[in-house]
Amino acid sequence: MKLQKKVLSGIAALTLIFSLSANVTNVSAATNVADFEDGKYGFISMMQDDGADPSELSVVDLNGTKVLKVDVQKGAVPKVQINVADMVDAGSLDKIKTIEFDLVIENPSGEVVNWNGGAIGSNSGADAGTWSQSDWSLEEYSASISPVTKMTRTFKAGEEFVNDTQATYLFMKWANNNDMYIDNIKFLTADGTPVALNFGGSTKEAVKEETTDTSTDTSASTATTDTETTTEATATEATTTATAETLPQTGTAPVGLYFVLGGALIVVGIAAKKRGSVEF
User: Fold this and answer.
1) Full DSSP string of 35-84
2) pTM of the prediction?
3) What SS3 class is residue 167?
4) Domain boundaries of the chain, sorted by first residue
């Protein structure tokens, strides 16, 4: 009877451990990457100036994951402002060397996406008034939606953010009617370590929910940017083909497994103590 009670107590402990480990996983996922799974995007806004498109922002479902949709309204230039100072501790801005995020482009008319290009710029320096910019471009695609493309921009010497400033990135796509989907925003140090995020008061909720059909098979690609040259992303061979269903997922699921395994060993130990020994 005592053994049964110990086993039941162990099962209850396992349930609690698994619940706590799930929370640990979610916290870890939210610490290093902005993945929009909570529906919040108050740290991103659309710049409205001459030539800017009055694009609408919302968090939508894209094949099982939440992404930020930039819904182009008038075919002008969407200017997506990423307010880094709202995402990172004021004393950690100077650690940022690279920004990376996932990009999908869709032609809402259902026609071919074709060529897309633009720029990733930043306001840095002591007064956050020093502008630097890198161009990007993606090749033409034979479908109405592009593959997931990893966009990156790395600062050159003298372009870095300065602590305690209103540091921002500005992501622009040259004028056309294509919509964009953005996900998994990360800031990296010079050695590639993710910079911890702290969203503070950014609590703007998604204003609408939509489901986008992205069943077309496309090839995975990667785009990098440089302040002097434009690097075009090229489709990889068929052996590495992917669709928008392969949008990278965030989180550290194995952490939960480790907690559960540890709890299981505790239960086995309890039983072993009662019975004398257990062979593995």
Assistant:
1) --TTSB-TTEEE--STTB--PEEEEEEETTEEEEEEE-SSSSB-EEEEEG
2) 0.67
3) coil
4) 1-30+251-280, 34-249
- The predicted-structure confidence for 38-81, as pLDDT tens digits, reads as follows 999 999 999 999 889 999 999 999 989 999 999 999 999 999 99
Q: How far apart are CA 169 and CA 82, in angstroms?
A: 5
Q: Decide: 184 and 250 in contact? Cβ < 8 Å.
A: yes
Distance CA 36, CA 103 (A): 14
**What does the pLDDT look like over 163-181, one tens digit per residue?**
999 999 999 999 999 999 9
The number of residues in the chain equals: 280
- CB under 8 A, 24+ apart: contacts of 211-215: 211/60, 211/61, 212/60, 212/61, 212/62, 212/63, 212/69, 212/106, 212/181, 214/62, 214/63, 214/104, 214/106, 214/145, 214/243, 214/244, 214/245, 215/243
Task: Give one DSSP letter per residue of 198-260, joined into a string.
Answer: --TT--PBPS---B----S-EE-EEEEBBSS-B-EE----GGGEE-GGGPPP-S-THHHHHHH
Task: Write the CA distances from 225 to 117, 179, 201, 230, integer angstroms.
Answer: 11, 21, 31, 6
What is the CATH number that goes with domain 34-249? 2.60.120.260
Residue 134 dihedral angles phi and psi, to the nearest 5°: -125, 135
The C-alpha atoms of residue 113 and residue 178 are separated, in whole angstroms, by 7
Helix and strand numbers (H, E) in the chain are: 2, 14
The structure tokens listed for 228 are 């002097």
